[in-house]
Amino acid sequence: MKINFFLLFISIAMCGLIFFGFYKWDDDLWLSILSASISLIFLVTTLAMEFPDAPRSGTMVKVTSGIFFFVFLVLNILFSVFNASETSYVLTNGIGLCIWASSVYGIAKTKQ
């Protein structure tokens, strides 16, 4: 696994913009930080990581991370629009992150 540092900086910049947008929209610092950190995880695995030893697995990890990124972005926007409770926000994001992590682990373990 290699990391493309230019795309890593692009991912960090995009997460900064996501943080700024959610903070200005909802004025809740904790939820904005959580949204930005989850977005950073997905964007780094989607954009910056490369898997030269397993190109098929790398493609599957990138596609899975990209799909989860867009799902989580829509969920976070919906949580901000409807002013969802902090508990439902944390539980939904935490469960989704665990599902994503187990999916990526299973894909990466095949090494194809």
Could you please describe the fold and organization of this structure?
- With 112 residues, this protein is mostly helical.
- The protein is built from 4 helices and 2 strands.
- It has helices at 5-26, 29-48, 55-81, 86-110; strands spanning 2-3, 49-50.
- It has a two-stranded antiparallel sheet.
- Helix 1 (5-26) packs antiparallel against helix 2, helix 2 packs antiparallel against helix 3 and helix 3 packs antiparallel against helix 4.
- The two termini are 13 Å apart.
- The relative contact order is 0.15.
- The mean pLDDT is 89.
Brief synopsis:
Helices cover 84% and strands 4% of the residues. With 112 residues, the protein is mostly helical. Helix 2 runs antiparallel to helix 3.
